[in-house]
Structure formats: structure tokens, C-alpha cells
Amino acid sequence: MNVEEPAPSEQVKSLAVRAMEIMSNGSRADFDSVVHTGAVNRESMSEPPRTRGRGPDAFYASAVWLRAAFTELRFDVEHVVVEGDLAVVYTIMKGRHVGPFVVYDEQGSIDQVFAPTGRSFAVKQSHWLRVEDGRVIEHWATRDDLGQAVQLGWVPPTPLSMVRNAWAKRAARRNPSH
Fold first, then answer.
1. Helix 8-25 to helix 56-69 angle, to the nearest 10 degrees?
2. N or C: which end of the chain has fewer CB within 10 A?
3. Model confidence over 118-167: pLDDT tens digits?
């Protein structure tokens, strides 16, 4: 019996969907199987310094960073379009803000911290994933960060949220665990 290999576009599509899934629930080993050793995340400039490297370690660090701030995190895949080695994944990112969300500047220093609000959110995102040798080698995205900020109560800031965020930033600077 001759088993046919999936078409290359189906392989790229499947890998792209799996790459989104593991951000919310994947183990470190899952990242090894999905992310190329030379992979780069073009969105990591506001993330912790350890996310700015290459390969599975950096991608897994991004997942850990997101999971520290958001429980019930998931990426509901709405559409996937594949052209050659490039997949575009249209998702709805969902979660609940239960931990400090720490944003970094280009030098890797803590820039802003949003104290936990306990609120849930659902925002549209498009993730662009380039594949090489059967693994994701490049990622970049367009996200509705303002929509997320409004849903989580970060925008517009209130006097109370500004105080809470300042205390959270102070705590994060004393204990940089991300």
C-alpha cells in the first residue's frame, strides 16, 4: 500500500496551526519539534531579553512570558492561507489577565508593567510564519494591541490603575523573573 505524503501547502498549514497551539499549552519539547534552530521572532523587541535570541528557546520564552500574565490563553485559528513556504494565520487570541504584563524597551529594560486586572479579552491577530526544513524559521504579526488594552482596562488609564501599574513596575524591577 502506497501512502501519499500530504501536499507541501498542507504541511505548512498544519505546522502553522501547531505553532499557534503550542504558544498557549506546548512543552519545551513541542517547541523543539516545531521551531527551527535558526528561527527569529520579529515581534520580540517589547518582550523579555531571553525571547530575542534564535530558535526554540527564544520562542518558548515568549510563550512563558505570555502565560505568566494570561491564564486560559489560547489562539483560536479562524483562517490559514499558505503560499509557498509562508503561512498567514488569522487568530483570535483569548485569555484572562492574572499576572503582571511586563513590556520591555529595545535595550531589554522594563518599560511598562500592567498590573493584573482579572479581566478577559479576545483580540484579532494575524501571524505570519515562514517555514524551512519542516519547521517555523520566521515569525511576525499584526495585533490589535489597543483593543486588548481597552478590554483589559489599561486604556484609558484611571488614577487607581496608574498607581497599581507603578507598584507592579517597581516590583518587577526588584524581581525580574521574566
1. 50
2. N
3. 999 999 999 999 999 999 999 999 999 999 999 999 999 999 999 999 99
The Cα–Cα gap between 95 and 3 comes to: 40
Mean pLDDT value across the chain: 94
Q: CA angle, corner 178, sides to 108 and 174, nearest 5?
A: 85
Residue 14 β-bridge partners:
none
The secondary structure of 26-49 as a DSSP string is --HHHHHHHEEEEEEETTGGGS-G
Q: Within a 13 Å sphere around the CA of 138, how many CA atoms are in the beta-carbon half? A: 8
CA distance 137 to 59: 11
Euclidean distance between CA atoms 103 and 112, whole angstroms: 5
Domain edges within the chain: 8-174
Q: Cα 31 from chain centroid?
A: 13
Q: What fold characterizes domain 8-174?
A: Nuclear Transport Factor 2; Chain: A, (3.10.450)
What's the confidence (pLDDT) of residue 178?
A: 52
Please tell me whether the peptide bond between 156 and the residue prior to it is cis, using omega within 30 degrees of 0: yes
Which three cell numbers, joined as nine digits, stand for 130?
515562514
